Amino acid sequence: MNEATKTGVIGFPVDHSVSPTIHNYWINKHQINADLYKKISVDPKFFEEEVLRLKENGTLGLNVTVPLKELAFSFSEEQTEIAKQTRAVNTLTFKNGKVYGDNTDVIGFQRSLDKETVENNIANKKCLVLGAGGAARAVACALSNLGGTPFICNRTLKNALKIQQELRIQSEVIEEENLSTVIGEISFIVNTTSLGLGDTENNAVDFTQVNHRAFVYDLIYNPKLTKFLSVAKEKSLGYQNGMKMLIEQAAESFKIWHNIHPKNSDELMNVLEEL
Ligand code: ATR
Known about the structure:
Elements lengths: L5 E6 L7 H11 L8 E4 L5 H10 L2 E6 L4 H7 L2 E2 L1 H6 L4 E5 L2 E5 L2 H8 L2 H8 L3 E5 L3 H12 L3 E5 L3 H11 L4 E2 L5 H4 L3 E6 L23 E4 L8 H8 L3 E3 L2 H16 L7 H8 L2
Helix pairs in contact: 1-11, 5-7, 5-11
Bound molecules: 2'-monophosphoadenosine-5'-diphosphate (ATR).
2'-monophosphoadenosine-5'-diphosphate binds next to helix 7.
């Protein structure tokens, strides 16, 4: 049997993904004996069928993106503790005939944060998580690991309640209409929804009520400055987009597959900025 050398990202849609640029940059830089990392689009209905086909076809591992992370969790045969906690898998590895599931978004989000942001805005503080999908699960776990209390707020209340119940961390659920009652006490705000992608608006937060020391994070990295972040900038709040998290979670997946932990570099950042 040939050694598995194929990696890629599977999602629906997946066209927007810049993961191939990151992984292929490292595959070349570290002269890894591997095929180029690819994008694979698959309708959720055919997810299992497609993954099994890829597994039999020399695939070493896959990153999983929207909306397949929860399906990937159920599909994997063995999961790491963090994948079990989030019940979301963004990294599948095929080894010894088995399918392993991991979630590198949690560590990716943690590593993307500056020490000062963690100390001043997260540890022992109230943190607002907008959204309740796979990304919100990872972010809420990461914030809890860093000593913060996530307040989960989502368009569909029952999805927020589901996360709270399944994650088993200290967290609160806040209804959208009650957000104004706590927003002034929140010191870290993170958007995990797709609102803000392209030209869409994200009006989930009334920034006139936000504490002037709050830090605002948007998982979206395209555009670099979402409207959400541009309001934070206008208000002179600290802010950050999702690019560093994207690189850090990719580095952790790369390590799982190729046993090398690539460093984030200015050169890679420049390549990504030019996309
Ligand atoms: P991901 O894996 O990236 O988190 P996801 O699982 O599809 O993606 O989750 C997307 C989240 O963004 C969900 O919480 C979704 O809200 P619902 O639970 O109500 O579906 C939220 N979201 C997506 N589009 C939204 C919109 N137009 N307005 C508000 N929330 C939205």
